[in-house]
Amino acid sequence: MAFATTTTASAAAMLTWIFFDRINGRKVSALGACIGAVVGLVSITPAAGYVTVPESMFFGFVAALVSNMVVNARFLKGIDDTLDVFACHGVGGITGMVLTAIFAHGEHASLLHGGWNVFGHHITALVLVSIYTFFGAYILFKITNKIIPMRVSEESEVMGLDLSQHDETLFPIECAD
């Protein structure tokens, strides 16, 4: 069951991602399809053995929509998250965790199967893990920044990080004669 739900959630998320991009006037790409597939995998991970195949397709569909909207949200464009890790893995995981609390089958009933207990535990865990992760990462970033500055100077950015930080470039620099 876990194999089937994992496969279908990933496929549903991939298709949802590329169709949602197309509907919103964005270019459909292989990279977008791969990102969608990963979002589906992330979202189904907590529920792979506890939901049916049709429910796993719903997981992929919802996670792809939510993550795609976060990736393309204008108010988040100023955040330095080059690979959209939070939008894909963070939001996809949060979506999967909440949907697991709603749909999961098993000895502990989820929200759709008559139990508020699992839903409450999932939301509590989500809040606690989010707080712990935010402050833990913040402390680690501050310590790392004291040891090795994480931000380069504006001059280095203008010059280009390959040249300013690594003293190399993709294209040979022509020397003036």
From TrEMBL:
Residues 2-169 form the Ammonium transporter AmtB-like domain. The keyword Transmembrane applies. GO terms for cellular component: plasma membrane. It is found in: Membrane. The keyword Transport applies. Keywords: Ammonia transport, Membrane, Transmembrane, Transmembrane helix, Transport. SUPFAM superfamilies: Ammonium transporter. GO terms for molecular function: ammonium channel activity. It comes from the Bacteria. The chain crosses the membrane at residues 28-51, 57-76, 83-103, 123-141. PANTHER family: AMMONIUM TRANSPORTER MEP2. Belongs to the ammonia transporter channel (TC 1.A.11.2) family. This is Ammonium transporter.
